[in-house]
Amino acid sequence: SCDWDRTRFTMDAKYYDSVIDTFIDLYKKGKIYRGERMINWDPAALTALSDEEVIYKEVNSKLYHVRYKIVGTEDYITIATTRPETILGDTAICVNPKDERYKHLHGKFALVPLINRRIPIITDEYVTMEFGTGALKVTPAHDMNDNQLGQKHGLEVVDIFNEDGTLNADAQIYVGEDRFEARKKISKELEEK
């Protein structure tokens, strides 16, 4: 049976002090660090979700094809995405180094549509040449795979969302709009331009 004489609450002073001491010790030993990480976030409940709480399901989504102007030329590179609102957080375009279609663009720069942020065109074998256009928009703040690619290539992380799923000032346009409403408006504006 339980030993009720030694019952403790996780926030008891002795437990709390022990946890703090352990974290400080691990930090000093270089075993842990403080930094930003990508998490699963629920914008309705305003809370993080563990990977076990996320229910993945395959859905048929609309694939948007978006042209990014190559800096200093009249050329474009086209990417395909299901989330056009996240282009506002793009910090690179990635192509496979073996893809002959894009060899002439290695090391060049493109402009993010609508906001004209200058981003590099990088190469990585992670990109599948046969999927979509073979060119991947890299949005390290909003996709787990893009985040890993961004860390590997030292890319900037631009988080365009507030905790409630609305666009923040880093998006530069449609600030305060819900992400799904912004998607509609951005896709319409991209179509017009």
Commentary on this structure:
With 193 residues, this protein is an alpha+beta fold. The protein is built from 3 helices and 8 strands. The model has no long low-confidence stretch (mean pLDDT 94).
Secondary-structure topology with pairs:
Elements: H1 13-28, E1 40-42, E2 47-49, E3 64-70, E4 76-81, E5 92-95, E6 109-111, E7 118-123, E8 135-138, H2 144-153, H3 179-192
Parallel strand pairs: 5-7
Antiparallel strand pairs: 1-2, 3-4, 3-6, 5-8, 6-7
Mean pLDDT: 94
Order of helices and strands: HEEEEEEEEHH
Q: In percent, how much strand structure appears in the residues?
A: 15-25%
Helix content: 10-25%
Alpha-carbon distance between the two ends: 72 Å
What's the tally of helices?
3
Taking pLDDT < 50 over at least 5 consecutive residues as the criterion, the unreliable ranges are none
Q: What is the SS-derived class?
A: alpha+beta
Descriptive key words:
two-stranded antiparallel sheet, 8 strands, 193 residues, alpha+beta, 6-stranded mixed beta sheet
Summarize the structure.
This protein is of the alpha+beta class.
